[in-house]
Amino acid sequence: MTNQKLKIYGDNNKKISIMSSTAQFALNVFEGIRIYKTKNGLNIFRAKDHLKRLLESAEGLFLNHDYSLEMLENILYSFVEDLNLEGDTALRVILAVTDEGSWSSSNNANLFIVPSSRPHMPSIQIGAKRLCVVKWQRISSLSMPPHIKCGANYINSRLGFFEARNKGFDYPIFINSRGFVSESSGACIVLIKDKRLMTPPVDADILNSITRDCIKNMASILDLEWIEKDLKKGELLDADEAFLCGTAAEITPIGSIDDKLFGNGDVGLRTQKISDLYEKIVRNQTTVFAEWNHEI
Ligand code: PMP
After folding, report:
1. Which of 181, 189, 207, 244 for mutating ligand 1's site (highest number of atoms within 8 Å of CB)?
2. Dist CA 100 CA 69 (whole Å)
3. Residue 12: which pLDDT band, with cuts at 50, 70 and 90?
4. What is the residue with the minimal CA distance to atom 10 of ligand 1?
5. Sign of dihedral through CA atoms 92, 95, 96, 99?
6. Nearest ligand 1 atom, CA 31
7. Which of 157, 243, 247 to mutate to test the pocket of ligand 1 (most atoms within 8 A of CB)?
8. pLDDT tens, residue by residue, 204-240
9. Which of 43, 75, 120, 161 could share a disulfide with 88, CB 3.0–4.6 Å?
10. How close is the Cα of 98 to the center of ligand 1, in Å?
């Protein structure tokens, strides 16, 4: 697929000032939503859940705006239909305070939808990643609530990410302020031990990931048990397999954590099965969880 030049929803022509609340103080909330090519058209995956979380994030930051869930859904679906997309596309849906002002601004946030079409390869085909536990701690719900998906929170992600990269790893794993495993820089972590899927609970300072929720619901179909509990660093190394999950990460296999190799460091069998089912769901090739799909 070639890169399509795509239009943006929002005030396309307006230049946003460097002194705006969004540019200077990261006063914005956002969502990443994926659109997958299906046999009959395109599927906007779990759009309603993403838009709900966008509104919750806005409320969490006391952001004023004019949008209801229904309005956001209508705008998103008709905007995507007008795009005439050729294939897989990633969307950013953003509410940003674009007026000049400070972090305490109560001016209304404006809506932007920014599509980017790029050739898409399921994360699983890119191969297993090498992760390490980083020294940077995950932001805490008592200071910068990680369940709010706002631009500012990604500075913590950036710090952990570059610590990992500078040590020769692909992605970080953060420990939270209580000393338990939290998540990676832009994805949640799931461990596989025997027939159990184990992952930190939502109060382990993670983003309440929509993909994690998909896997939670998929577990019983795959004859796997879903367990949410605080995990110690040592339990990471005791797993049979592990993977990252997220809208962008999809199911990203983890080959190693620090110097512990899972199997031979390749994609584990159970991880592959989870990814295969996820791929079928997002491409609307199975009847299970059809309610997650909005096909156009
Ligand atoms: N944690 C963080 C920090 C993230 O940025 C993301 C990506 N949105 C996730 C987890 C995964 O969340 P989701 O499955 O909703 O994309």
Report:
1. 207
2. 27
3. low
4. 187
5. positive
6. 8
7. 247
8. 999 999 999 999 999 999 999 999 999 999 999 999 9
9. 120
10. 24
The order of strands in the sheet holding 110-116 is: 110-116, 89-96, 28-37, 42-45, 293-295
Closest ligand 1 atom to the C-alpha of 213? 14
Q: Is residue 200 within 6 Å of ligand 1 at its C-beta?
A: no
Cβ of 187 closer than 6 Å to ligand 1, yes or no, is yes
Element of type H or E holding 52: helix 47-60
Instruction: State pLDDT tens for residues 95-148.
Output: 999 999 999 999 999 999 999 876 677 777 788 999 999 999 999 999 999 999
246 lines ligand 1 (CB under 6 A): yes
Q: Is the CB of 207 under 6 A from ligand 1?
A: yes
Q: Are 72 and 55 in contact (CB under 8 A)?
A: yes
User: 282: Cβ below 6 Å to ligand 1?
Assistant: no
Ligand 1 centroid distance, CA of 31 (Å): 9
Q: Across the chain, what does the average pLDDT equal? A: 94
129-137 and 171-175 as β-strands: parallel, antiparallel, unpaired?
parallel
Length of the chain: 296
Evaluated on CA atoms 63, 186, 249, 214, the torsion sign reads negative
Res 5: pLDDT: 72
Distance CA 205, CA 198 (A): 16
Pairing of strands 129-137, 250-257: parallel
Q: 136: helix, coil or strand?
A: strand
Whose C-alpha lies nearest to ligand 1, atom 3?
186
- Tokens read off for 53: 């979380």
Does pLDDT of 27 surpass 50? yes
The pTM of the whole model exceeds 0.90: yes
Measured between alpha carbons, how far is 34 from 134 in angstroms, rounded to an integer?
A: 29
